[in-house]
Design a protein that fits this description.
Length: 205
């Protein structure tokens, strides 16, 4: 296993660890672990392209690791009752990710690929930034002392901002999902006439 794939696997493993840490009242530790996971996401694709070590394993597992990380932490927020992360936001994000993951897996197995989408890259960055800001707020700023209070009132200015960011994240998630499905239909029609993403990492996910 090369370094880029190792970082991807590390991020995949960190997802459940962040969730367990979050639910065990280790909000600050979960924040730092999540930031580490974000760094691996920035590094694995870059290293794969720079060292010319792009693999089919990396193409499939890189977006999967992102989805597992984001999905598990959002579920953790629901369990904790974080008021500015409502069920409809989490359901929309998870529904989109599960749907597109299935489509992406099928396309990769067929030997095709998707053109890199700026919206999809922005979506992933927005999701992770939103989650990191929530963990940061819960760790250092939320009422209730160190570690934050998951039940803090959503009427607080900071909580209202985090809720608004969630709306933006959900909108990007939906738009990128629609774009992904449209591109997938185009590929199906042309049987691979569309140019493929040369590395599959950091593209549509």
């Amino acid at each position: 296993m090369n370094w880029p794939n190792g970082l991807t696997v590390a991020r995949l493993v960190l997802g459940p660890i962040v969730l367990v840490t979050l639910l065990s009242a280790g909000v600050r530790l979960s924040f730092f672990l999540f930031v580490i996971a974000m760094v691996t996401d920035l590094c694995d694709g870059y290293l794969a392209r720079r060292s010319n070590r792009v693999t089919e394993f990396g193409k499939l597992m890189d977006p999967l690791a992102d989805k597992v990380l984001v999905g598990l932490v959002l579920v953790g927020f629901l369990i904790l009752g974080v008021p500015y992360v409502p069920l409809w936001m989490v359901a929309t994000v998870l529904g989109r990710e599960l749907l597109i993951l299935g489509c992406r897996t099928g396309v990769l197995k067929s030997g095709e690929g998707f053109v890199t989408s700026r919206i999809a890259k922005l979506k992933t960055a927005a999701q992770m930034t939103w989650i990191a800001l929530i963990l940061l707020y819960q760790s250092f700023l939320a009422p209730g002392g160190a570690g934050g209070d998951p039940g803090a009132s959503p009427a607080e200015p900071a909580a209202a901002v985090l809720w608004g960011l969630g709306v933006v994240v959900v909108a990007l998630t939906v738009v990128s999902g629609i774009e992904y499905l449209l591109n997938g239909r185009g590929i199906a029609r042309t049987h691979g006439a569309a140019p493929a993403n040369p590395d599959g990492r950091g593209g549509m996910s």
